[in-house]
Amino acid sequence: MGIDLPLLWAIIILFGILMYVIMDGFDLGIGILFPFMPDEHDRDVMMNTVAPVWDGNETWLVLGGAGLLAAFPLAYAVILHAFMLPLIFMLLGLIFRGVAFEFRFKAGADKRHWWDKAFIFGSFCATFFQGVVLGAYIDGLPVVDRAYAGGALDWIHPFSIFTGLGLIVAYALLGCTWLIFKTEGLLYDRMRALARPLTFTLLGVIVVISLWTPVAHPAIGERWFSMPNLLWFAPVPILVAVSAYYLLAMLGQKPHAGPFVLTLILIFLGYSGLGISIWPSIIPPDISIWDASGPPQSQGFALVGALLIMPIILMYTGWSYYVFRGKVRHGEGYH
Q1: Beta strand 143-144 with 281-283: parallel, antiparallel or unpaired?
Q2: Could you give the 3-state DSSP secondary structure of residue 281?
Q3: CA distances from 254 to 32, 176, 218, 265, 282 (A)
Q4: Which of 72, 190, 226, 315 has the largest count of CB atoms under 10 Å?
Q5: Do you find a cis peptide bond into 280, omega within 30 degrees of 0?
Q6: 287-288 and 281-283 beta bridge pairing
Q7: Domain definitions of the chain by residue range
Q8: What is the pLDDT of residues 101-116, one digit of tens each?
Q9: Global pTM?
Q10: Are 321 and 49 in contact (CB under 8 A)?
Q11: Could you report the per-residue pLDDT of 60-73, keeping only the tens digit for each?
């Protein structure tokens, strides 16, 4: 039996996107939390927790996009056509955030507030439009003769707007628990207090999306609630409830890395729920990874490069987080 290249590439792309959501999510979350922390010294510490590592996190976004082009050119063409505007807005947000990261530390006291605003705007903008794309993607894309048949603004509808707002909450909690992990003192206490309402809000978002999706898409509802699928997939919502319970219980103590780990588990479970809902479609609702796959020669050639580069990315990412481990304190920083 030959290697199922489309399946292998789907796993690689899904892994790359998950790594991006996890690793870029908490530094986007820090920008989302900036308005709640007006003190300049607290903001310095918040940025310094991710300043050494933030730019490497985008590597996974590039890997996912390049892998989609190499392995599933039809999906790449349809998705970029359908979501051209929100993806442009997302990239603009990432640009604002990236420039603000570097220039904020070099700006004078009278100009720094402009870079704070750019950092906040970029973080909210990138996160919101990532969520919008996610919601519109779940809703499905019309494809006729292997080309996108919808309009340029079809991504604007209530569900996609809600998922955009929901992702802001998810990244805010991720950033909040990251700061619990990396800071101490008054900033640590503020983040610990803020994490509790964010956890309840995220649970509300998860419940709404979990009900809205099967109601709006009967095929997804059938997948989740028919037997024996209901028994196979029941661990996902159960684990969400258990993880949230332990996260809330831990916030009542003096936690360290635990809340961050549990939030990562919640993000992973949400990602798993998305995969269960649409698998094996790569262009929902009808086009599977095998229907959209490119020539085996192209997939095989690109696979060699991916299998060589991914261990390198994982090694230098792990090394950078190891080097810059530990708490970040006032007056200390990467810059």
Answers
A1: unpaired
A2: strand
A3: 24, 14, 44, 20, 43
A4: 72
A5: yes
A6: antiparallel
A7: 5-323
A8: 888 877 777 788 888 8
A9: 0.92
A10: no
A11: 888 888 889 889 99
